[in-house]
Amino acid sequence: MNQFRKNPLLWLVVLGAIVLYTQLQGGPSSITDSHDVTTTVSASAAIGGPFALIDQDGKPVTDESFRGKYMLIYFGYSFCPDVCPTELLIMSQALDRLGEASKDVVPIFITVDPKRDTPEKLKGYVGHFGDRLIGLSGSEEAIGKAARAYRVYYRIPPAKDGAPPTEDYTVDHTSFIYLMGPDGKYLTHFVKGQDPEHIAEAIRKYLKPA
Ligand code: NI
Question: The whole model's pTM is what?
Answer without folding.
Answer: 0.79
